[in-house]
Automatic annotation (TrEMBL):
Catalytic activity: (R)-malate + NAD(+) = pyruvate + CO2 + NADH
Protein name: D-malate dehydrogenase (decarboxylating)
Pfam families reported in the protein's UniProt record: Iso_dh
EC number: 1.1.1.83
Length: 356
């Protein structure tokens, strides 16, 4: 049997709840498939640790994670900790240390869900967003001078490198080329951001020349929000900077029915280091502890993780199972149902049982 070592980091709030359900799903798949064994180790790094020790990740934490084949992540964030501290304290160090330079976000309207866009059919919305995951506004550059005076200046420096842009754009062309419609849209704001994003435009067309089978077009990010809402069927694969990709993928998730169903993969495409899989939603303090969080975004992320680990069959069966569950009405409140999280999970466990 194949063996996979998974580091699981539930984090805070509903992250803890949905990851617990994800473990049940993974154990069920392991039991049913009989072809792989999973070693899941849980790391309870959270905002509580930060409040006690001043750190999210213990001193040797990243070194420990490096040995795993994949990382499963819930969500981080607490009303007691400023959001920039939790983000930079837990998720961003992992993305950076393991060179997870692509954030891949598939978006579809699952069976049984409806898009808030009333003028479209479910199949009109089938996208993959490739978000650059290591640079731009998230490079951590900048600083504040004359703080606490009327003359404060805060510089938020976006950093773009040829290497960083090119590897992400190449990944996006490979992704587009593997999909039936073979269409890639570049999103920038190269009219206003005239250095980094002009470089994005330039590299995009250089790489495009190597992919004659992929049709391309280019949008400014503001106009892109309009196109996503009014003409979703004209889009297929989308590539964008770290910040633009972050914002557009939350919009995309909402258009697909709920932020609670959307998955994301933080990929290290060279496979030198572990990749990390997480739902795109946050810790949702407003519903934490109530057992009503939608676990679908996490389950879909688990399906992506299994495929990345080479467990194609288990990943596909899981995805089919998720679709059966939403289609047959086991839905949490955010997608118009009244099932709680555990009921949805148990419907999925039964579906999986039937599928083997
Ligand atoms: P959020 O995603 O936590 O919640 C936004 C809204 O969507 C809330 O009303 C919430 O109840 C709802 N929601 C989110 N996930 C849901 C689910 N699975 N099922 C049902 N409803 C769901 O975003 P926020 O409120 O902006 O942020 C809350 C905290 O999470 C903050 O501390 C923020 O920094 C953090 N955050 C973390 C991540 C991450 O860990 N990757 C991502 C985004 C936000
Ligand atoms: Mn986001």
């Amino acid at each position: 049997v194949r063996e996979h070592w998974i580091a699981s980091i539930p984090g805070d709030g509903i992250g803890i709840e949905v990851i617990e359900q994800a473990h049940r799903v993974l154990k069920q798949l392991e039991k049913l498939s009989k072809t792989f064994k999973l070693h899941i180790d849980t790391f309870n790094w959270s905002s509580n640790d930060y409040l006690k020790t001043g750190e999210y990740i213990p001193a040797d934490g990243l070194k420990t994670l490096k040995k795993y084949d994949a990382i499963l992540f819930g969500a981080v964030g607490s009303p007691d900790v400023p959001d920039h501290i939790s983000l930079w304290g837990l998720i961003l160090p992992i993305r950076k240390m393991f060179n997870q330079y692509v954030n891949l976000r598939p978006i579809r309207v699952l069976p049984g869900l409806s898009s808030p866009l009333k003028h479209i059919d479910a199949q009109d919305l089938d996208w993959v967003i490739v978000r650059e995951n290591s640079e731009g506004e998230y490079a951590g550059q900048g600083g504040t001078t004359h703080d606490d005076t009327p003359y404060t200046i805060a510089n938020e420096v976006a950093v773009f490198t040829r290497q960083g842009i090119e590897r992400t754009i190449r990944f996006a062309f490979d992704t587009a080329s593997s999909r039936p419609r073979k269409h890639l849209t570049l999103v920038t704001k190269s009219n206003a951001q005239r250095h980094g994003l002009v470089l994005w435009d330039k590299i995009f067309y250089e790489v495009a020349a190597e992919y004659p089978d992929v049709k391309t077009d280019k949008m400014l990010v503001d106009a892109m929000t309009v196109r996503m809402v009014l003409k979703p069927s004209t889009l297929d694969t989308i590539v964008a900077t770290n910040l633009h990709g972050d914002i557009l993928s939350d919009l995309a998730a909402a258009l697909s029915g709920s932020i609670g169903v959307a998955p994301s993969s933080n990929l290290n495409p060279t496979r030198e280091f572990p990749s990390m899989f997480e739902p795109i939603h946050g810790s949702a303090p407003d519903i934490a502890g109530l057992g009503v969080a939608n676990p679908v975004g996490t389950f879909w992320s688990v399906a992506e993780m299994l495929k990345w680990l080479g467990e194609q069959e288990a990943g596909e069966k899981l995805m089919k199972g998720i679709e059966k569950v939403t289609e047959s009405g086991f839905k949490t409140k955010d997608i118009g149902g009244n099932a709680d999280m555990v009921t949805v999970t148990e419907a999925l466990l039964r579906e999986l049982e039937n599928s083997y």
